[in-house]
Write a structure and sequence with these properties.
Blueprint lengths: L4 H11 L19 H6 L1 H12 L6 H15 L7 H17 L1 H11 L4 H12 L5
């Protein structure tokens, strides 16, 4: 199942995906992160957003994310675990409904030409995500 740019983006961010060899999945080492706690903490969530935007220094896992993100976007996150995909859906719903400005900033940087928005629009609507 294909995921929207944001789904890929936040799965990677919140799960702390690190580089993997081409034949491996991304690490699942951070898959047990409590996403509800991150959603409740605007400061923490904003730190991840700022890291990805390049406006603030990244944590170690954030820095790894910036390295893997282009590949994850291009490959439909084929190296992501199911848990990472599900976590991303949760985060993206929160951002679209509650932090739309942050979502817009990330989308402007990572999908400036609207490629991913167009590619995944119908699927996102089926999942109840309206852009």
């Amino acid at each position: 199942v294909k995921m929207k740019l944001a789904v890929v983006l936040f799965v990677v961010v919140l799960c702390g995906i690190a580089y993997a060899r081409p034949d491996e999945k991304y690490t699942t080492k951070y898959d047990n992160v409590d996403l509800d706690e991150i959603i409740k903490n605007d400061r923490l969530m904003r730190n991840y957003v700022d890291c990805l935007l390049g406006t603030k220094k990244c944590t170690k896992d954030g820095e790894e994310l910036k390295k893997v993100l282009p590949e994850a976007l291009k490959t439909d996150c084929v190296k992501c675990s199911e848990g990472q995909r599900n976590g991303a859906k949760k985060i993206i719903r929160h951002l679209i409904k509650n932090k739309r400005d942050w979502w817009n900033e990330l989308e402007a940087k990572y999908d400036s030409d609207g490629t991913y928005r167009k590619q995944y629009d119908a699927e996102l609507k089926r999942d109840g995500i309206v852009l």
